TrEMBL record:
Presence of the UniProt keyword Glycoprotein in the record: no
Keyword annotations from UniProtKB, A to Z: Carbohydrate metabolism, Isomerase, NAD
Pfam families linked: Epimerase
Family: Belongs to the NAD(P)-dependent epimerase/dehydratase family.
Reactions performed catalytically: UDP-alpha-D-glucose = UDP-alpha-D-galactose
Keyword NAD: yes
The protein's name in its UniProt record: UDP-glucose 4-epimerase
InterPro entries membership: Epimerase_deHydtase, NAD(P)-bd_dom_sf, UDP_G4E
Gene: galE
Organism listed in the record: Agromyces intestinalis
Length: 320
Protein backbone atom coordinates (compact mmCIF):
# COMPACT_ATOMS: atom_id res chain seq x y z
CA UNK A 1 0.00 0.00 0.00
CA UNK A 2 1.14 3.54 -0.80
CA UNK A 3 -0.42 6.72 0.56
CA UNK A 4 -0.42 10.05 -1.23
CA UNK A 5 0.11 12.94 1.20
CA UNK A 6 -1.16 16.17 -0.34
CA UNK A 7 0.48 19.20 1.21
CA UNK A 8 3.22 16.89 2.47
CA UNK A 9 5.94 19.55 2.23
CA UNK A 10 4.18 21.76 4.78
CA UNK A 11 4.72 21.93 8.52
CA UNK A 12 1.99 19.40 9.38
CA UNK A 13 2.13 17.42 6.14
CA UNK A 14 5.86 16.77 6.41
CA UNK A 15 5.36 15.38 9.91
CA UNK A 16 2.63 13.10 8.53
CA UNK A 17 4.95 11.91 5.75
CA UNK A 18 7.64 11.16 8.33
CA UNK A 19 5.16 9.31 10.51
CA UNK A 20 4.33 7.05 7.56
CA UNK A 21 8.04 6.43 6.97
CA UNK A 22 8.56 5.61 10.65
CA UNK A 23 5.88 2.91 10.37
CA UNK A 24 7.43 1.50 7.20
CA UNK A 25 4.45 2.55 5.08
CA UNK A 26 5.19 3.79 1.57
CA UNK A 27 4.15 7.39 0.89
CA UNK A 28 4.51 9.97 -1.85
CA UNK A 29 4.20 13.74 -1.34
CA UNK A 30 2.33 16.13 -3.63
CA UNK A 31 2.79 19.83 -2.88
CA UNK A 32 2.79 23.05 -4.94
CA UNK A 33 5.30 24.66 -2.52
CA UNK A 34 3.14 27.76 -2.10
CA UNK A 35 3.76 27.47 1.63
CA UNK A 36 5.57 24.13 1.87
CA UNK A 37 9.32 23.59 1.60
CA UNK A 38 10.89 20.77 -0.35
CA UNK A 39 13.57 20.35 2.31
CA UNK A 40 10.82 19.34 4.77
CA UNK A 41 10.01 16.22 2.71
CA UNK A 42 11.64 13.21 4.39
CA UNK A 43 14.61 11.63 2.64
CA UNK A 44 13.52 8.65 0.59
CA UNK A 45 9.93 9.82 0.15
CA UNK A 46 9.12 10.61 -3.50
CA UNK A 47 8.11 14.22 -4.11
CA UNK A 48 5.88 15.54 -6.89
CA UNK A 49 5.56 19.31 -7.26
CA UNK A 50 2.08 20.31 -8.31
CA UNK A 51 -1.39 21.37 -7.28
CA UNK A 52 -4.47 19.44 -6.19
CA UNK A 53 -6.26 21.53 -8.81
CA UNK A 54 -4.41 19.55 -11.50
CA UNK A 55 -6.48 16.41 -11.89
CA UNK A 56 -4.29 14.92 -14.60
CA UNK A 57 -1.19 15.27 -12.45
CA UNK A 58 -2.96 13.57 -9.54
CA UNK A 59 -4.07 10.67 -11.74
CA UNK A 60 -0.57 10.27 -13.18
CA UNK A 61 0.92 10.33 -9.67
CA UNK A 62 -1.55 7.72 -8.44
CA UNK A 63 -0.77 5.41 -11.36
CA UNK A 64 2.98 6.00 -11.26
CA UNK A 65 3.37 5.18 -7.57
CA UNK A 66 0.53 2.71 -7.11
CA UNK A 67 -1.33 4.93 -4.64
CA UNK A 68 -4.05 3.16 -2.65
CA UNK A 69 -5.09 5.95 -0.26
CA UNK A 70 -4.84 9.71 0.23
CA UNK A 71 -4.15 11.84 3.29
CA UNK A 72 -5.42 15.26 2.21
CA UNK A 73 -3.72 18.19 3.95
CA UNK A 74 -3.17 20.58 1.03
CA UNK A 75 -5.17 23.78 1.06
CA UNK A 76 -5.50 27.41 2.01
CA UNK A 77 -5.27 27.50 5.80
CA UNK A 78 -5.39 31.16 6.86
CA UNK A 79 -8.80 31.78 8.43
CA UNK A 80 -8.33 35.52 8.89
CA UNK A 81 -7.08 36.08 5.34
CA UNK A 82 -9.97 34.01 3.98
CA UNK A 83 -12.40 36.69 5.15
CA UNK A 84 -10.71 39.17 2.76
CA UNK A 85 -10.09 36.57 0.03
CA UNK A 86 -13.03 34.14 0.18
CA UNK A 87 -12.81 33.00 -3.43
CA UNK A 88 -9.18 32.01 -2.93
CA UNK A 89 -10.15 29.85 0.03
CA UNK A 90 -13.04 28.21 -1.82
CA UNK A 91 -10.99 27.63 -4.96
CA UNK A 92 -8.17 25.90 -3.12
CA UNK A 93 -10.20 24.05 -0.50
CA UNK A 94 -13.47 23.22 -2.24
CA UNK A 95 -12.59 23.06 -5.93
CA UNK A 96 -9.25 21.49 -5.03
CA UNK A 97 -10.83 18.79 -2.89
CA UNK A 98 -13.47 18.06 -5.53
CA UNK A 99 -10.73 17.76 -8.19
CA UNK A 100 -8.77 15.41 -5.95
CA UNK A 101 -11.82 13.25 -5.28
CA UNK A 102 -12.62 13.08 -8.99
CA UNK A 103 -9.07 11.92 -9.74
CA UNK A 104 -9.37 9.30 -7.00
CA UNK A 105 -12.64 8.06 -8.45
CA UNK A 106 -11.14 7.83 -11.95
CA UNK A 107 -8.16 5.81 -10.69
CA UNK A 108 -10.04 3.59 -8.25
CA UNK A 109 -8.57 5.00 -5.01
CA UNK A 110 -11.19 4.45 -2.31
CA UNK A 111 -9.60 5.63 0.96
CA UNK A 112 -9.12 9.15 2.30
CA UNK A 113 -8.06 10.74 5.58
CA UNK A 114 -9.07 14.40 5.44
CA UNK A 115 -7.27 16.99 7.54
CA UNK A 116 -10.22 19.14 8.56
CA UNK A 117 -10.39 21.85 11.20
CA UNK A 118 -12.16 22.76 14.42
CA UNK A 119 -12.94 26.03 12.61
CA UNK A 120 -16.10 24.24 11.43
CA UNK A 121 -17.55 24.84 14.92
CA UNK A 122 -17.14 28.61 14.94
CA UNK A 123 -17.62 29.85 18.50
CA UNK A 124 -19.39 26.99 20.28
CA UNK A 125 -21.36 27.77 23.43
CA UNK A 126 -20.16 24.69 25.32
CA UNK A 127 -17.31 23.99 27.73
CA UNK A 128 -16.13 20.95 25.77
CA UNK A 129 -16.59 20.52 22.03
CA UNK A 130 -17.59 17.06 20.82
CA UNK A 131 -18.07 15.72 17.30
CA UNK A 132 -21.80 16.36 17.67
CA UNK A 133 -21.45 20.03 18.65
CA UNK A 134 -23.36 22.17 16.12
CA UNK A 135 -21.28 23.52 13.26
CA UNK A 136 -21.32 27.29 12.73
CA UNK A 137 -18.13 28.25 10.87
CA UNK A 138 -17.34 31.96 11.02
CA UNK A 139 -14.90 32.30 8.12
CA UNK A 140 -14.73 31.14 4.51
CA UNK A 141 -11.87 28.89 5.64
CA UNK A 142 -14.07 27.13 8.20
CA UNK A 143 -16.92 26.91 5.71
CA UNK A 144 -14.63 25.41 3.07
CA UNK A 145 -13.46 22.73 5.49
CA UNK A 146 -17.03 21.79 6.35
CA UNK A 147 -17.89 21.59 2.65
CA UNK A 148 -14.86 19.32 2.23
CA UNK A 149 -16.32 16.97 4.84
CA UNK A 150 -19.64 17.02 2.98
CA UNK A 151 -17.88 16.13 -0.28
CA UNK A 152 -16.29 13.09 1.34
CA UNK A 153 -19.61 11.99 2.81
CA UNK A 154 -21.34 12.37 -0.57
CA UNK A 155 -18.62 10.35 -2.31
CA UNK A 156 -18.96 7.72 0.38
CA UNK A 157 -22.65 7.34 -0.30
CA UNK A 158 -22.34 7.55 -4.08
CA UNK A 159 -19.06 5.75 -4.80
CA UNK A 160 -18.18 3.80 -1.67
CA UNK A 161 -15.32 6.06 -0.59
CA UNK A 162 -14.04 5.00 2.84
CA UNK A 163 -13.06 8.11 4.73
CA UNK A 164 -12.61 9.99 7.96
CA UNK A 165 -12.05 13.65 8.81
CA UNK A 166 -9.82 14.84 11.65
CA UNK A 167 -10.72 18.15 13.28
CA UNK A 168 -8.22 20.03 15.43
CA UNK A 169 -7.37 23.51 16.69
CA UNK A 170 -3.83 24.74 17.32
CA UNK A 171 -0.89 22.58 16.25
CA UNK A 172 2.49 23.36 17.80
CA UNK A 173 5.89 21.87 18.51
CA UNK A 174 8.17 19.89 16.25
CA UNK A 175 8.95 16.22 15.92
CA UNK A 176 12.32 16.92 14.36
CA UNK A 177 14.61 19.99 14.48
CA UNK A 178 14.56 20.46 10.70
CA UNK A 179 10.79 21.10 10.42
CA UNK A 180 9.22 24.17 12.01
CA UNK A 181 6.01 26.16 11.74
CA UNK A 182 6.48 28.79 9.03
CA UNK A 183 3.01 30.37 9.33
CA UNK A 184 3.03 34.15 9.84
CA UNK A 185 -0.30 33.92 11.67
CA UNK A 186 0.21 31.26 14.37
CA UNK A 187 0.99 32.06 18.01
CA UNK A 188 4.28 30.19 18.44
CA UNK A 189 5.98 31.67 15.34
CA UNK A 190 4.74 35.14 16.27
CA UNK A 191 6.15 34.85 19.80
CA UNK A 192 9.47 33.34 18.69
CA UNK A 193 9.95 35.89 15.91
CA UNK A 194 9.33 38.71 18.36
CA UNK A 195 11.87 37.34 20.83
CA UNK A 196 14.50 36.73 18.14
CA UNK A 197 14.01 40.31 16.93
CA UNK A 198 14.30 41.74 20.44
CA UNK A 199 10.63 42.69 20.62
CA UNK A 200 8.15 41.87 23.39
CA UNK A 201 5.39 39.39 22.53
CA UNK A 202 1.83 40.53 23.08
CA UNK A 203 -1.38 39.05 24.44
CA UNK A 204 -4.74 40.15 23.04
CA UNK A 205 -6.78 40.71 26.18
CA UNK A 206 -6.23 39.62 29.78
CA UNK A 207 -9.73 40.19 31.17
CA UNK A 208 -11.51 37.04 30.02
CA UNK A 209 -13.42 34.84 32.52
CA UNK A 210 -10.60 32.29 32.71
CA UNK A 211 -8.20 31.42 35.55
CA UNK A 212 -5.54 33.93 34.44
CA UNK A 213 -7.71 36.21 32.32
CA UNK A 214 -6.29 35.07 28.96
CA UNK A 215 -7.96 32.94 26.30
CA UNK A 216 -7.86 29.16 26.69
CA UNK A 217 -7.34 27.02 23.60
CA UNK A 218 -6.49 23.49 22.52
CA UNK A 219 -2.78 23.15 21.73
CA UNK A 220 -1.60 19.75 20.48
CA UNK A 221 1.83 18.51 19.45
CA UNK A 222 2.32 18.07 15.72
CA UNK A 223 3.93 14.63 16.12
CA UNK A 224 0.88 13.36 18.05
CA UNK A 225 -1.35 14.75 15.30
CA UNK A 226 0.73 13.07 12.58
CA UNK A 227 0.55 9.70 14.34
CA UNK A 228 -3.26 9.94 14.48
CA UNK A 229 -3.38 10.45 10.72
CA UNK A 230 -1.33 7.30 10.18
CA UNK A 231 -3.48 5.21 12.53
CA UNK A 232 -6.59 6.41 10.67
CA UNK A 233 -4.98 5.35 7.39
CA UNK A 234 -4.11 1.96 8.86
CA UNK A 235 -7.71 1.42 9.98
CA UNK A 236 -8.95 2.23 6.50
CA UNK A 237 -6.41 -0.15 4.96
CA UNK A 238 -7.45 -2.92 7.35
CA UNK A 239 -11.14 -2.43 6.58
CA UNK A 240 -11.88 -1.65 10.23
CA UNK A 241 -14.84 0.37 11.40
CA UNK A 242 -14.03 4.07 11.51
CA UNK A 243 -16.07 7.13 12.39
CA UNK A 244 -16.65 9.82 9.73
CA UNK A 245 -15.24 12.51 12.06
CA UNK A 246 -12.87 12.71 15.02
CA UNK A 247 -11.83 15.63 17.21
CA UNK A 248 -8.16 15.61 18.12
CA UNK A 249 -8.54 17.62 21.32
CA UNK A 250 -6.68 17.96 24.59
CA UNK A 251 -9.75 17.87 26.79
CA UNK A 252 -8.56 20.70 29.06
CA UNK A 253 -6.70 23.35 27.05
CA UNK A 254 -3.95 25.85 27.82
CA UNK A 255 -4.18 29.61 28.30
CA UNK A 256 -2.17 32.11 26.30
CA UNK A 257 -0.71 33.33 29.58
CA UNK A 258 0.50 29.82 30.41
CA UNK A 259 2.16 29.60 27.01
CA UNK A 260 3.95 32.90 27.54
CA UNK A 261 5.26 31.74 30.91
CA UNK A 262 6.40 28.44 29.41
CA UNK A 263 8.16 30.26 26.56
CA UNK A 264 10.03 32.51 29.01
CA UNK A 265 11.14 29.49 31.05
CA UNK A 266 12.19 27.36 28.07
CA UNK A 267 14.00 30.10 26.16
CA UNK A 268 15.60 31.69 29.19
CA UNK A 269 14.40 35.08 27.91
CA UNK A 270 12.68 36.91 30.73
CA UNK A 271 9.82 39.04 29.46
CA UNK A 272 6.44 40.37 30.49
CA UNK A 273 4.09 40.25 27.51
CA UNK A 274 2.42 43.43 26.36
CA UNK A 275 -1.33 43.46 26.84
CA UNK A 276 -3.21 44.56 23.75
CA UNK A 277 -6.99 45.00 23.44
CA UNK A 278 -9.18 41.98 22.86
CA UNK A 279 -9.64 40.89 19.28
CA UNK A 280 -13.25 41.05 18.19
CA UNK A 281 -14.90 37.65 18.20
CA UNK A 282 -12.28 35.87 20.33
CA UNK A 283 -14.14 33.54 22.72
CA UNK A 284 -12.78 33.00 26.22
CA UNK A 285 -12.41 29.24 25.86
CA UNK A 286 -12.51 26.66 23.07
CA UNK A 287 -11.46 23.14 24.02
CA UNK A 288 -12.37 19.82 22.40
CA UNK A 289 -12.79 16.31 23.73
CA UNK A 290 -10.54 13.68 22.18
CA UNK A 291 -12.34 10.67 23.71
CA UNK A 292 -13.57 9.20 20.43
CA UNK A 293 -10.13 9.50 18.83
CA UNK A 294 -8.54 7.98 21.94
CA UNK A 295 -10.82 4.97 21.52
CA UNK A 296 -10.11 4.40 17.82
CA UNK A 297 -6.91 6.24 16.82
CA UNK A 298 -4.63 5.75 19.84
CA UNK A 299 -4.95 9.50 20.35
CA UNK A 300 -3.49 11.04 23.49
CA UNK A 301 -1.43 14.02 24.55
CA UNK A 302 2.05 12.54 24.64
CA UNK A 303 3.84 15.87 25.14
CA UNK A 304 3.73 18.38 27.97
CA UNK A 305 3.42 22.10 27.31
CA UNK A 306 7.11 22.51 28.12
CA UNK A 307 8.01 19.82 25.58
CA UNK A 308 5.83 21.48 22.95
CA UNK A 309 7.55 24.81 23.50
CA UNK A 310 11.05 23.31 23.73
CA UNK A 311 10.75 21.32 20.49
CA UNK A 312 9.28 24.30 18.62
CA UNK A 313 11.96 26.66 19.95
CA UNK A 314 14.84 24.35 19.02
CA UNK A 315 13.47 23.91 15.49
CA UNK A 316 12.95 27.67 15.07
CA UNK A 317 16.47 28.47 16.31
CA UNK A 318 17.94 25.87 13.95
CA UNK A 319 16.29 27.69 11.06
CA UNK A 320 17.39 31.17 12.14
Amino acid sequence: MTWLVTGGAGYIGAHVARAFAAKGIEAVVLDDLSTGRVEFVPTGTPFVQGSILDGSLIENTVERFGVTGVVHLAGFKFAGVSVQEPLRAYHQNVTGTATLLAAMEHTGVERMVFSSSAAVYGTPDVDLVTEGTPKHPESPYGESKLIGEWLLADQGRAQGLRHTSLRYFNVVGSGTPDIYDVSPHNLFPLVFDALLAGRTPRINGDDYPTPDGTCVRDYIHVADLADAHVVAAQRLDAGQVIEPVYNLGSGDGVSVGEIMRAVAEVTGIDFTPEIAPRRQGDPARIVASGELAARDLDWRMRHTLAEMVESAWQARKAAA
